[in-house]
Amino acid sequence: MRFSKACLKNVFSVFLIFIYLLLMAVAVFLAYQTITDFREKLKHPVMSVRYKKVDRFEAPGIALYPGKAQLLSCKHHYHDHIPPLVNPGQLGEVQCLTDRINYTDPYTNHTMKQALIVKGPTDVRKRELIFLQFHQNETEQDFSAIGYLLFFSYQEFSDSPDKAQFMKDTESSYSIWTFSGGFRTWVKMSLVKTSEKDGGESVEFRQESSVVKYSDQRPDSEKGNELFFVVFEWRDPFIQEVRDIITANPWNTIASLCGVFLALFKAADFAKLSVKWMIKIRKRHLKRNPREMNQVT
Prior knowledge:
alpha+beta
């Protein structure tokens, strides 16, 4: 009966050692997984998007490439309201701040380009917009359009000592869009700022455009001059700021590893005590056997 109890104790001790070895293996795996997850989060940050509300934007630069077309008028309006046209196709008032620049094409380096630079709207709270009107005489082209590009700051262009180089660099960084003749193209702009890994910041314009056909009521003799209408306005008072955020928290990782290693040490200590207890029971059992044999003898 005593021998059977000792065997049961030994079997139970071996079972406990096996369980704690299994727990130690799980703890080692968790430690490895925690370190791996931390390294992966460092390599792959999460994109964070924040919207910053403003009352006024910095005046953007609007570079237009009219070609043979002529600027007739440029006016500021507010609250999404454009009054009816007066004498369309005729020279009107130019209220906008403009500048003309000639520079070489950044992609060919031998073609000269002429750009009309216009200072864009700023007061988004009053829904300021800029309305431009162009006209062009009869052309042999099948399709006619005027190109434009948007860049972040008209003030940077104005302060630049080399405006031609500034526009050359700008064209290589931004996309050129177009609006067609015989239509009113309404461009609504939005601004996206992206933080770069090197600490810099890039600026991107996003835009939505709607097109409405112009009902030309001029005399037939004047309809040979094609009219172009374009409106530039801020879509909403928000700047979208995009940046990468590292979600890996070193303190959480350290705390998890401390808990894992503490469990490892506790399991190892318990396994050590269990082995000592088994050896002690085994020695007692071996001492009892000779005494029992002597008594029987």
